[in-house]
């Protein structure tokens, strides 16, 4: 028990505090599971091709039947990151760390929003568990992963009137 200016408070860890760890445990397990999405490798290759060309892909470099046809990659910025990360690490070793970082920021941002509006650790833990149930199968190494992060950043910015301009 701590006394500060005549007031007493007890520091205890509740079940809700422990529940806050569940999203992080699920995310760590998810980040190091084998990559099950083969289209991710196309995004890496598109990124390395764009780095080599010095521009966004404007024709289809992948298909046999449509090679050279007009085509514009939609996720060029993330693909550039993928290509650079693959080149820097010499393989796919960056993937679990990327999933852990970006997924962790998504879970953290959603938890902060829940806590900001409710001022309740229980509500933040509940939102964290819901995030795991809903999002964990979508936290994959594809460009959409960054969309979740941007959505949370927009929601966080909107939740404070001083940052709504962002």
What features would you highlight for this structure?
mainly alpha; two-stranded antiparallel sheet; 166 residues
Biggest sheet strand order reads: 1-2
Helix-strand pattern: EEHHHHHHH
| Mean pLDDT score | 85
How would a crystallographer describe the biggest sheet? 2 strands, antiparallel
Poorly predicted parts: none
Number of helices: 7
- Content-based structural category: mainly alpha
User: How helix-rich are the residues, as a percent range?
Assistant: 55-70%
Instruction: Report how far apart the termini are.
Output: 44 Å
**How many beta strands in the DSSP annotation?**
2
Strand % is under 5%
Report on the architecture of this protein.
Strand 1 and strand 2 (7-9) form a beta hairpin. It is elongated, with a radius of gyration of 21 Å. Helix 2 (22-31) runs parallel beside helix 6 (121-135), helix 3 crosses helix 4 and helix 5 packs antiparallel against helix 6 (121-135). It is mainly α. It has helices spanning 15-19, 22-31, 39-53, 76-89, 94-118, 121-135, 144-158; strands at 2-4, 7-9. 60% of the residues lie in helices and 4% in strands. It contains 7 helices and 2 strands. The N and C termini lie far apart (44 Å).
Strand and helix layout:
Elements: E1 2-4, E2 7-9, H1 15-19, H2 22-31, H3 39-53, H4 76-89, H5 94-118, H6 121-135, H7 144-158
Antiparallel strand pairs: 1-2
């Amino acid at each position: 028990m701590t006394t500060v200016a005549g007031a007493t408070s007890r520091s205890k860890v509740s079940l809700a505090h422990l529940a806050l760890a569940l999203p992080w445990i699920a995310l760590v397990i998810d980040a190091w599971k084998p990559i099950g999405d083969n289209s991710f490798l196309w995004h890496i290759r598109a990124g390395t091709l764009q780095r080599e060309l010095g521009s966004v892909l404007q024709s289809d470099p992948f298909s046999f039947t449509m090679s050279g046809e007009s085509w514009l990659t939609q996720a060029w910025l993330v693909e550039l990151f993928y290509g650079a990360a693959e080149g820097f690490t010499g393989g796919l070793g960056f993937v679990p760390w990327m999933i852990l970082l970006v997924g962790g920021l998504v879970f953290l941002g959603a938890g902060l929003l829940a806590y900001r509006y409710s001022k309740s650790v229980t509500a933040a833990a509940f939102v964290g568990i819901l995030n795991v149930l809903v999002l964990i199968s979508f936290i994959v190494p594809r460009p959409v992963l960054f969309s979740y992060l941007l959505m949370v950043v927009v929601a966080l910015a909107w939740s404070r009137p001083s940052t709504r301009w962002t």
